[in-house]
Design a protein that fits this description.
globular, seven-stranded mixed sheet, 11 strands, single chain
Length: about 290
């Protein structure tokens, strides 16, 4: 299926751009003597663009390739082929020093905070670990930065000496966000960052992302399967299925004027939480039907 692409708003060059990403995994089946080897393409010619100060949501069902794509652009997983650029600079294959610089620009917030936070480290050590890796000296000292970051993400700085297990899931995710912000990145890649949280906590974390973006101009890649959540946070949306891009465009184009049947099917499965959105989508469908 060829991807449908709608025109995104004109602006300055993309902060991050990926071109023609491919990720292949070898698989084997059969017995020892009859074993057959084949190639599974988890990411199939995916291109995307993340603009300054905007959120690109990458959506699709489980197994669609969205998380693998996120790991590739975060340089946690090497692509079989394709290119990645940050502000026009090719960072596809870089030296150790260049990768260190990349990590300062691009940080990841993972799905399960408890598996991504070292259980043997206290919160202050977790938050300052990226600073040590980057060799960054903080004006006013690390303790002051930890206090500022914990306050910024809604945590009590007096709890900086505690361990991750002493926090709730939502609080632990905020620790992960604080850690990501410590090096003042330009881009946050959020891989299902709210899917493991209760609905009420999801809303709090989403509002946190939105306020951080409004205040600091962060760009965000938001990987998700919950389109109701995506509607709240995204500026642009890319829909994936079976490793390929099905459709991409602005949030309103995708939600109100979807072109591909797969996208329409995903949208139809969303519980109606806002009657105005649903009425507008149906009106657009009726207009398209009348025009054809």
């Amino acid at each position: 299926m060829s991807a449908t692409t709608k025109t995104l708003p004109e602006s300055e060059p993309a902060l991050l751009e990926a071109r023609n990403l491919v990720m292949e995994f070898g698989t084997a089946s059969g017995g020892v003597l009859t074993q057959k080897k084949s190639v599974f393409r988890a990411v199939d010619d995916v291109s995307l663009s993340v603009r300054h100060g905007r959120t690109l949501a990458v959506v699709g069902e489980s197994g669609s390739g969205k998380s693998t794509t996120a790991r590739i652009i975060a340089k946690l997983l090497p692509a079989t082929s394709g290119s990645i650029f940050v502000e026009g600079e090719d960072v596809t294959d870089v030296s150790k020093d260049a990768l260190r610089r990349f990590r300062r620009q691009v940080q990841v917030v993972f799905q399960d905070p408890f598996s991504s936070l070292n259980p043997r480290h206290t919160v202050d050590r977790i938050i300052t670990a990226p600073l040590d890796y980057q060799g960054i000296t903080v004006p006013g000292g690390k303790r002051r930065l930890v206090k500022e970051l914990m306050e910024r993400v809604g945590l009590d700085p007096d709890h900086s000496g505690r361990y991750p297990s002493q926090f709730s899931g939502g609080q632990a995710q905020r620790i992960g966000i604080a850690r990501a912000l410590a090096v003042k990145p330009k881009l946050l890649i959020c891989d299902e960052a709210v899917s493991a949280l209760d609905v009420s906590v999801q809303a709090q974390v989403i509002n946190l992302f939105k306020s951080l973006q409004a205040e600091n101009g962060y760009s965000i890649v938001f990987i998700a399967h919950d389109l109701a959540v995506v509607r709240q946070i995204a500026h642009d949306v890319m829909v994936m299925n079976r490793g390929a891009v099905v459709e991409q465009g602005s949030r309103d184009d995708i939600f109100d004027r979807p072109q591909e049947q797969y996208t329409k099917t995903l949208l139809a499965a969303i519980p109606t939480i806002n009657p105005e959105w649903e009425a507008r989508r149906r009106m657009n469908e009726q207009r398209v039907g009348a025009a054809t």
